[in-house]
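dude i think i finally got it to work??
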Amino acid sequence: MHNRRHFLASSAALTSPALLPGLAWAEKPWPEARTIRVVIPYVAGGVSDSVGRRLLEQVSHSLGQSIIVDNKGGAGGTLGMGEVARAKADGYTLALSAISPLTLQPHLMKLPYQFKDLVGVAPMMYSPVYLMATTAFQGKTFEDMVAAAKAKPGSIRWATSGIGSVGHIMLEQVQAKTGAQFIHVPYKGIAQTVTDAASAQFEVMTGNPFGTINSLIDQGKLRLLATTGPKRAPNQSAIATLAEKGIPEANLTSMFGFLAPAGTPADVIARLNKVILAEIATPTIQDAMHASDNVSITQSAAEFDALMQQESRNNASIVKKANISI
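look at this
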C-alpha cells in the first residue's frame, strides 16, 4: 500500500476541482511535467467519485504526475463527455465515467459527439444498480411497487440520475414488461437524488451502491426492492435481481472506465492502461470496491474498446425494441 503522506495534505485536496500533488518528476516523465485533467461527468459524490478519486491518488503517485479531478455534471454525463471529446488528444485530458454516455445516450438523443470521438483507455469496474424505495412508499416489495403503479398510474415517482441514464432505461423496461406506469423524476446526478431520497421526496429510485446509499439502507431510509447484475450483489445476497424477477431486459449494470479523445497516442494509452490496472489490483482499491458491491474489470485498451462497441450495439437493440424515445 502506498504511503499516503505523498497524496493529500487534507481531504479538501480532492474537492472539485481537485489537485493531487505529484511527486518528484522522473528523469524522463511521461510525457512531460504537465498536469493531467480527469473529467468525471457527474456532480461530486457518486460511485465514480468514491472509488475513482482514491484510485487516481494512487495513479498520480505511480506516474509521478499531478492529476486534477474535475466534476462536470449534467445531462446524464453527456456534457462532461462532450468536453473530453473536444479536448486535444495529447494525453492530458481523460474522462472517468460510466460508459453509458458513449454507448447508450447516442441512441436516444442527438449529441455533440459520436462514439468514434473517444477511445477506451482502461476499464475500472462494473456496478450493480439498486432499485430502492424511500419511506414515502408504503409497500414492501418490488411486486408491491408494480401493483401500486398499475392500480393507480402515476402514483409512484421513480427518480434516476438523468434522462437517458441506465436507471431511465430500466424504468422504461419495467413499464414495458409489466404495464405499470411511473412518473420519471430525472436528476442531474446522484448526490441530490440521495439527499431528496432521505427526506422521502419520491417513492423509488435507482442508483449504484456507494457509501451514502449503503448508509441510508442501514438506517432504514432506503429499502432495497431489487438489484441488477449477472448474479446477486455479494453484500445484498438476500435481494433478487431483476432477471430473477422475470425482467431480464431491465437487468442492466453500470460499467465505469477511463476514456480519452480519439487520436491520443497509443503509447500514452498503453502506459495509462498498465498503471491504472496495476493500481486497481491493489488491496486498497479492491477493498473500496468490494465494500460497495462493485467488481473490478481487467482488460487491455483494445479489449475495453471492443466491449464498448458490443455494449453500444446491445443498447441500440434495446432502445429500438422497446421503442424508447426522448
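The longest helix spans residues 301-322.
im so relieved honestly
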